[in-house]
Design brief:
By secondary structure, the chain is α/β, with parallel strands linked by helices. The protein is built from 12 helices and 12 strands.
């Protein structure tokens, strides 16, 4: 006979539920795990008492039994910007899997200090016994030694956006080479014959590959094309103001910035230099980031569907957890051209 339920007077646990229903703790455990070996009448009583007592399973205890904590870490830049939608995609996909997100933010984006911060965060994730890690790396050149402890512990690692050519792992990102190719095709189709690609240097794979795809397509089409290393994704206004005063820049009629911030900085400098867009110079960006200046022309750009990158990263991570020995996989999300007022 089921005992009366004293709601809220005792901490809900398997033992308390078992006492209330008059069954063993094992029977309660099997029922709440969804097993069907318990008689339905008894199972119904157990579920009713568990609901009344507001029972919540102890994930730490459950993790000791299953070897899973149902926690996944995401290691991201502190300035989320572009990665905000990726994070939403990760969190919503994990929620559907019954998992929780442990967020780690890296304050720096390049250099030794950024690498030290990143590896410290990765070690903290391992201390929390997360089931897996989704990483946007600060260093494209990191090799297997850099991730030794992650590998040794067998923790699945999925990298997003920036590739790690010297470390084998699952990857989700944009087809950046194809994106650069399409950008060149768009400008050429609109009549541009003297092109310029503005990139962030050699440090980041996304910048290199968009630049390379753009240059190869423009050269194959027989149009004049130049490149300009901006030294990063956020060049100073003075950098472009000086460049567009030079005689070599006067003939440029089509510009591709490998991200929206670079493209918008170029737009501002063109306006200061007295060159109209899109009449004299057409400008494309990449990323489809929100526009902060309501008076600026709406940038023609490419949507990377960043939320899908987050969704796919979780999918690869779950597949890796189920099958640790499967071949590593790279997933490339196609870009979508977004019409604007600058091209």
């Amino acid at each position: 006979m089921m005992k009366s339920v004293n709601n809220g007077s005792r901490q809900a646990s398997l033992k308390v539920i078992a006492e209330q229903v008059g069954v063993s703790m094992m029977t309660v455990s099997r029922t709440l795990r969804g097993e069907t070996t318990v008689a339905e009448e008894t199972a119904a009583k157990i579920r009713k008492v568990a609901e009344t007592l507001k029972y919540r399973p102890n994930k730490l205890v459950e993790g000791l039994r299953t070897g899973r904590t149902c926690m996944v870490a995401a290691v991201m830049p502190a300035y989320l910007g572009f990665y905000e939608d990726a994070l939403r995609g990760i969190e919503s996909s994990l929620d559907l899997k019954g998992c929780s997100l442990v967020l780690n933010l890296i304050s720096r984006d390049f250099g030794r200090d950024a690498m030290r911060e990143e590896i410290r965060r990765l070690h903290r994730c391992l201390e929390l016994r997360v089931d897996g890690i989704i990483l946007r790396p600060v260093n494209d050149d990191a090799n297997a030694v850099y991730f030794n402890e992650v590998v040794d512990r067998g923790v699945p690692l999925v990298v997003i956006d920036r590739k790690l050519p010297d470390f084998a792992c699952d990857f989700v990102g944009t087809d950046d080479v194809a994106g650069g190719e399409v950008a060149a095709q768009k400008l050429i189709h609109k009549g541009c014959r003297s092109l310029l690609v503005l990139h962030a240097g050699e440090k980041v794979s996304t910048s290199r590959e968009r630049r390379d795809g753009f240059l190869a397509t423009a050269r194959a089409a027989g149009v004049n094309v130049e490149e300009l290393d901006c030294g990063g994704f956020n060049p100073s206004p003075e950098f472009f103001n000086l460049y567009f005063r030079q005689p070599a820049a006067q003939g440029v009629d089509g510009i591709f910035g490998v991200n929206d911030d670079i493209a918008r900085a170029a737009l501002r400098a063109l306006r200061i230099a007295g060159r109209s867009c899109p009449e004299q110079v057409k400008v494309l960006g990449f990323g489809h980031l929100p526009q902060s200046d309501p008076d600026a022309p709406r940038l023609a750009t490419f949507d990377q569907h960043v939320g899908l990158i987050g969704n796919e990263a979780v999918k690869l991570l779950m597949e890796r957890l189920e099958n640790p020995g499967k071949p590593y996989k790279s997933v490339y999300i196609p870009v979508q051209f977004i019409e604007g007022e600058t091209a």
